[in-house]
Amino acid sequence: MRIAKVRGTVVSTYKEPSLQGVKLLVLQFVDENGELIPGHEVAADMVGAGVDEWVLVSRGSQARHVRDCSDRPIDAAVIAIIDTVTVENRSLYRK
């Protein structure tokens, strides 16, 4: 699992039928200092996250073990909305 910040959404009129109704988010991963790492990734949102929230992301085959994802072509899923992140007694993020 990795920590990421939600940067936006993806809207797709035509997609794989099993992805109908799945909200897609644009994510940017966060490093151990709370800084954004260059690059973006798209993930299925399973928890109702919003733009600018920090989230926990499951990737690869483990993403398909998330509820309602087993028969979908998903390789990244947002599985939690983060309230706080603390590293070595230093707060990196607070919702």
Instruction: Write down the oligomeric state.
Output: single chain
Number of helices: 0
User: What share of residues are in beta strands?
Assistant: 35-45%
Number of strands: 7
Structurally, how many domains make up the residues? 1
Contiguous uncertain segments of 5+ residues: none
The CATH topology turns out to be OB fold (Dihydrolipoamide Acetyltransferase, E2P)
For the largest sheet, list the strands in their spatial order.
1-2-3-5-4
Please tell me how large the radius of gyration is: 14 Å
Residues in helix, %: under 10%
Shape: elongated
Average of pLDDT: 88
Given helix and strand content, the structural type is mainly beta
The helix/strand series, from N terminus to C terminus, equals EEEEEEE
The CATH C-level class name: Mainly Beta
Q: In whole angstroms, how far apart are the ends?
A: 19 Å
The CATH architecture category equals Beta Barrel
Structure overview:
The chain is mainly β. It has one domain (2-94): EutN/Ccml (OB fold (Dihydrolipoamide Acetyltransferase, E2P), Beta Barrel). It is 0% helix and 44% strand. The strands form 2 sheets. A 5-stranded mixed beta barrel has the order 1-2-3-5-4. It has a two-stranded antiparallel sheet with strand order 6-7. The radius of gyration is 14 Å and the shape is elongated.
Short description:
The chain has 95 residues and is an all-beta fold.
Note the main attributes of this structure.
95 residues, mainly beta, OB fold (Dihydrolipoamide Acetyltransferase, E2P), five-stranded mixed beta barrel, two-stranded antiparallel ribbon, elongated
